[in-house]
Amino acid sequence: MISINIDFLTNHPDKINEVSEMVFKEFVVKTGSRKKFEDVVNHFSNTKNNTFPITLIALENGKCLGTVSIFDNDLAIRDMYKPWLASLYTKPEHRGRGVGEKLVAKTIDVVKELGFNELYLRTEDASNYYRSRGWTYLETVSDDKYEKIDVFKIQCI
Questions:
Q1: What is the model's pTM?
Q2: Does the pLDDT of residue 144 top 80, yes or no?
Q3: Alpha-carbon gap, residue 125 to 21, rounded angstroms
Q4: Domain, as residue range, for 88
């Protein structure tokens, strides 16, 4: 049986374009952002493994199955919360195999190693997913782009 390995994107520069494509299609195009693909590639080319932004990828037999990032802030109107889980994405053909859960678990480990006790996230459409996985609902807010953003946190213990 092949196991899924979670590692820093910085250790796999050959996966930057693939991760950029996933995030661009899911979180840029679908949200109507004006960000260009080159901007996304540039962002992922400059992630770190011990300071934000940090990006992790799920690998199986050399294939990238999904990704997640950690940002200092992912919601300008809530800058008192930090850090944030962001851009969790598993390729559709690999969903239902626990890839997302493994990415989140490693994210929590990384955040804890960096000295944080809590991790936050925002979602416009996946509240039930996070609630069912132990995240605590904090509030629903609006910004200039979205009417309803649910904010969650989880303890990193």
A1: 0.93
A2: no
A3: 21
A4: 5-155
